[in-house]
Design a protein that fits this description.
Elements: E1 5-8, H1 12-20, E2 26-29, E3 47-48, H2 57-67, H3 74-94, E4 100-101, E5 104-105, E6 107-108, E7 118-119, H4 126-140, E8 144-147, E9 151-158, E10 161-168, E11 174-178, E12 182-184, H5 205-213, E13 217-218, E14 223-230, H6 242-246, E15 250-252, H7 272-285, E16 290-292, H8 301-304, H9 306-314, E17 324-333, E18 336-338, E19 350-352, E20 357-358, H10 370-387, H11 397-400, E21 404-405, E22 434-436, E23 439-441, H12 447-460, H13 467-484, H14 488-502, E24 517-519, E25 524-527, E26 542-545
Parallel strand pairs: 1-2, 1-12, 2-8, 12-19, 18-20, 21-25
Antiparallel strand pairs: 3-7, 4-5, 6-7, 9-10, 10-11, 13-18, 13-25, 14-17, 15-16, 16-17, 22-23, 24-26
Length: about 550
């Protein structure tokens, strides 16, 4: 008798996949209590989809490719663009309260979009509203067994097949869950950074768990830093949605000077990596960076953008009459577990969708509001894949091979110093963590050690990076692995740092101050667990500057 499909994670991607699989039995591990631990619920902008009469899937795909700095897979971009509108319409039929203007959708224009195409809810409430709609539907679905507060801690099987997971309950109880198909929808890695807009529990667990099973990790170095998080010392940092700039809000320094116009022709609506670096440099120079919404939004702020307004009020700021201090903050992980456009990983029986997956859709820089759209479209494609497993599904370049950067490439002219060899290689895994049904389970990272890691990641692997800082960070992570064991957070952080060291160029969200130019050929990073301690490759031929 077939086992139920096991879904690990309950953000928009996991919940939509669970609903789409009906009537196939599903076991849903929510991680945190349902509705509390998913970054999806914090998303403000909305869902990008070609819904307007003057828009098209081809234009949406074109904008996605342009934003991704040479690394977007065209098939993935077109799959998203062609599928998003239907998923938004189905969500609306389910009850998601998207804004309308008569019979038409109310759409925002966000950074690097050529058209208004972001379907929104109450200005900045899309994620929370969509999550509420999905949670209600999932609770009413007979085919879904909700394991509220349960989380996957280790995948079962090996590189030849994933056979389920070991799960931990809210009270620490452990259970082995066998599955013919296991889906990772566990979110990103923002919690590895001291400054983040995401739940702190999102620490790249899917990357670490999948890699231990033998899965390929793609482009882990590409982390998107949202340019305009509220800079008021809050953790996590509240997001000041891209839609504010789409409505005309401007970025100014402490004197009121608008600083983006000389930097990029699209000014505040330039690609996120460009705006994030500009804001970072403004703050680093002491000039400050502020989002001035007084003319664009003004007195209508509480009604049009209630989530941002409430966050500002908590920090003692009134955005109707004063600019909002902002800083770039870890927001989205473009890299992750390598998959094709249906979520298939390099390990049979293991799938991944949403932020924890890397299909090639986002490339080096995610287009604004493509994340919720990806969660919906990838969930639908995954469900269709399971319903028709015998149909021909071509693999993506990330699974079939092709040119790549990886830890095995070495050269005598490397600009990057050798990384410290992992001392954990000599320490048996069983000396740390625990064993359940003969299966090793990773240890947890103590709170003070996690704090130290987050601070170091923001300092050395943030908006701007260098070989010196990254090498120091790699050594710190390896020392922590020796002291605390192969915790998921340390393995995930090491993937990001290794990818950043290996990529001796600046591209999209990855900016190296010691390698500020861009290579002629755009290559994906593809790493496995045993690549983490390899020497970085020599730099390829370079072209013009990255910005």
């Amino acid at each position: 008798m077939p086992h139920p499909t096991l879904i690990c994670g309950a953000g928009i991607a996991g919940l939509w996949a669970a609903l789409k699989l009906a009537p196939r039995p599903v076991v849903l591990l929510t991680g945190a209590p349902l509705g509390e631990g998913a970054a999806s619920g914090w998303a403000q902008g909305g869902v990008s989809a070609a819904l307007a009469a003057d828009d098209s899937a081809a234009l949406h795909a074109r904008d996605t490719i342009a934003a991704g700095a040479g690394l977007v897979d065209g098939e993935a971009a077109l799959a998203l663009a062609e599928g998003a509108a239907a998923e938004v319409a189905e969500l609306a039929e389910l009850g998601a309260p998207f804004e309308r203007e008569g019979a038409d959708w109310s759409l925002s224009r966000e950074a690097a979009h050529s058209r208004p195409r972001v379907a929104r809810v109450k200005g900045d409430g899309a994620g929370a509203a969509i999550m509420a709609t999905l949670i209600e539907a999932v609770r009413a679905a007979d085919h879904i067994e909700i394991r509220d507060g349960w989380k996957a801690v280790t995948l079962l099987g090996d590189a030849n097949a994933c056979t389920g997971a070991i799960a931990q309950g809210p009270d620490g109880q452990i259970e082995t869950l066998e599955a013919d198909t296991t889906l990772l929808a566990m979110g990103g890695a923002g919690g590895l950074f001291a400054l983040t807009t995401t739940p702190a529990i999102a620490q790249g667990q899917a990357m670490a768990m999948a890699a231990r099973l033998g899965a390929v990790i793609r482009d882990p170095e590409f982390v998107q830093f949202h340019p305009t998080a509220l800079n008021a010392g809050l953790d996590p940092a509240p997001l000041c949605t891209e839609a504010l700039r789409g409505e005309g809000a401007i970025l100014v320094d402490q004197t009121g000077h608008r600083f983006m116009k000389p930097i990029h022709s699209d000014a505040e609506l330039a690609p996120r990596d460009v705006v994030a670096r500009a804001v970072h440099r403004q703050n680093a120079s002491g000039k400050g960076a502020f989002l001035d919404c007084r003319e664009a939004v003004g007195a209508a702020f509480p009604e049009r953008f209630p989530a941002v307004f409430a966050a500002c009020q908590r920090a003692g700021i009134d955005p109707r009459i004063e600019p909002i201090p902002v800083a770039p903050t870890a927001h989205y992980h473009m890299g992750g577990v390598a998959t094709d456009i249906d979520g298939r990983t390099s390990v049979p029986g293991l799938f991944a969708i949403g932020e924890c997956a890397a299909t090639g859709l986002h490339g080096a820089n995610r287009l604004a509001s493509n994340s919720l759209a990806e969660g919906l479209v990838s969930a639908a494609r995954f469900a269709r894949r399971l319903a028709a497993p015998d149909e021909h599904h071509p693999s993506s370049p990330g699974l079939s091979g092709g040119p790549r950067l990886d830890g095995r490439q070495k050269g005598p002219d490397s600009r990057t110093p050798n990384i410290m060899v992992n001392p954990m290689a000599e320490v048996p895994r069983t000396s740390r963590g625990m064993t359940v049904d003969s299966q090793w389970v990773a240890p947890s990272l103590p709170p003070l050690a996690l704090l130290r890691l987050r601070q170091a990641m923001s300092r050395h692997c943030g908006v701007e990076r260098s070989a010196a800082g990254l090498t120091e960070l790699a050594a710190l992570i390896d020392a922590m692995r020796y002291e605390h064991g192969e915790a998921d957070a340390l393995i995930a952080a090491r993937f990001i740092v290794t990818g950043a060291l290996n990529r001796c160029e600046s591209r999209g969200g990855h900016f190296r101050t010691d390698c500020p130019t861009t290579c002629d050929e755009a290559l994906h990073s593809q790493l496995r667990l045993d690549d983490l301690d390899a020497v970085a490759p020599h730099p390829a031929a370079l072209t013009g500057p990255a910005e």
